[in-house]
Amino acid sequence: MGGHEIEQLIRLLGRLPGFGPRSARRIALFLLRDPQARLVPLARALERAGDAVKTCSTCGNLDTVDPCHICTDPLRDPSVVCVVETVGDLWALERAGVHRGVYQVLGGTLSPLAGIGPEDLNISPLLERLEQGSVREVILALGATVEGATTMHWLMDKLAFYEGVTVSRVAQGMPVGGALDVLDDGTLAAALGARRPA
Amino acid sequence: MGGHEIEQLIRLLGRLPGFGPRSARRIALFLLRDPQARLVPLARALERAGDAVKTCSTCGNLDTVDPCHICTDPLRDPSVVCVVETVGDLWALERAGVHRGVYQVLGGTLSPLAGIGPEDLNISPLLERLEQGSVREVILALGATVEGATTMHWLMDKLAFYEGVTVSRVAQGMPVGGALDVLDDGTLAAALGARRPA
Ligand SMILES: [Zn+2]
Ligand SMILES: [Zn+2]
Fold first, then answer.
1. May I ask the CATH architecture of the domain A62-169?
2. DSSP for residue B38
3. What is the DSSP code (8-state) at residue B111?
4. Which of A31, A105, B7, B36 has the fewest C-beta atoms under 10 angstroms from its C-beta?
5. Would you state the pLDDT for residue B173?
6. What are the contacts of B24-28 at 24+ separation with CB within 8 A?
7. What is the sign, positive or negative, of the torsion defined by CA atoms of A80, A85, A88, A93?
């Protein structure tokens, strides 16, 4: 519809998560109806964010600096590490403002069906920090899903190796089957506040 | 969250129709997790589409050429003009493949509440075509909304001036209160096929 360049834009928009052909066309039309005010600023923002984005080599967060703002924040407690599945989960906890320590982003969960094994999870920076003796508590904030539970038990086995480290997990307030980053701030605060030893 | 450039991208994504802060963050994270494979091609496609897009000065369609592919297609009948509200409606009719004439895109509907008057609608290219005597039928394919009906009656008054021009309107199959571009192809075909004099 409407020339190769427009079709190609619609095709790429249709690959975004949650998009179908209809929403891709709707967004393309919205942008193309007023390119200077809508499309150009978005293209520029994408380019700039793409140039600037870095994965934090310490925690796995996405930021424009490495290590990320959280890892280098002197007001945060680096001895309390909250383990989350995704950067989206980390951002959800940050928006809620309920965690004053640092993070470890696994980048997923163990999932034999999807072929995701321990070697696919970003866990070694956490193990390094544990070996350096700089961590006193690890909070497991994984989703209340089968994969989240599997991953949590695997992590608990690994973490049991480090003496003097408290391992806790968020529990109360997490709806069963729920993902972390769709919870409201109050639920996140309750789940984190009522954490218990794993 | 995560640096100025990333925040700016999330802000702009959040202004897209149907987007909220949550979906903006989800799409931003999806793109930023793999910039080379996801973000860069989309940024490039936006840029190219933005450079290439033109509004057809004859019908109001968005295309990469002016006049558009439809207006210059020798296999189409330029004497049958289908009037639609938006480019999205035009594209919906094209996907359904039910109209072999040409189009006139109004760019909206009359809406006193929204301050949209006759001077805001793209109607003069159609009037020019009518004055040249090259049009024998005008099909009104406006949405079955209050604004669509208002616009249709205003158009019928204007078109009554041109003798020898049949004015018809799509009718059967349009759900009341429905917009044109969410209809399935079969409904569109039925609505167009069963058009009757306005
Ligand atoms: Zn970090
Ligand atoms: Zn045209």
1. 3-Layer(aba) Sandwich (3.40)
2. I
3. B
4. B36
5. 55
6. B25/A88, B25/A91, B25/B1, B26/A17, B26/A18, B26/A88, B27/A16, B27/A17, B27/A18, B28/A49
7. negative
pTM of the full structure: 0.81
Q: Which residue has the tokens 């072929």?
A: A115
The domain locations on chain A are 4-52, 62-169
- Which alpha helices (H) appear in chain B, and where do they start and end? 4-13, 21-33, 40-52, 87-96, 124-131, 146-159, 185-193
ipTM (interface pTM): 0.82
**Taking the alpha carbons of B127, B129, B130, B131 in that order, is the dihedral positive or negative?**
positive
Residues near A141 by Cβ (< 8 Å), separated by ≥ 6? A82, A83, A84, A89, A93, A169, A170, A180, A191, A192
pLDDT in tens, A74-104: 999 999 999 999 999 999 888 888 899 999 9
pLDDT tens-digit profile of A93-139?
A: 888 888 999 999 999 999 988 899 999 999 999 999 999 999 999 99
Place of tokens 């189409």: B76
Which of A28-42, A88-102, B133-147 has maximum average pLDDT?
A: A28-42
User: Cα of A47 to ligand 1 centre, how many Å?
Assistant: 23
Is B69:A84 a contact under the CB 8 Å cutoff? Answer: no
Q: A24 — contact with chain B (CB < 8 Å)?
A: no
Pick from A38, A58, A1, A108: nearest CA to B181: A1
Chain-wide mean pLDDT for chain A?
89
Calculate mean pLDDT across residues A27-52.
Answer: 95
DSSP-H helix ranges across chain A: 4-13, 21-33, 40-52, 87-96, 124-131, 146-159, 185-193
Of A4, A5, A63, the CB nearest to B2: A63
Check CB contact of B146 with chain A, cutoff 8 Å. Answer: no
Chain B residue numbers touching A62 (CB-CB < 8 A): 2, 6, 29, 32-33
Sheet arrangement for strand B166-169: B101-105, B77-84, B137-140, B166-169, B196-197
A4-52 and A62-169: same fold? Answer: no
Identify the residue whose tokens are 């001895």.
Answer: A79
Nearest in space to A28 (alpha carbons), one of A15, A39, A40, A43: A39
pLDDT class of B17 with cuts at 50, 70, 90: very high
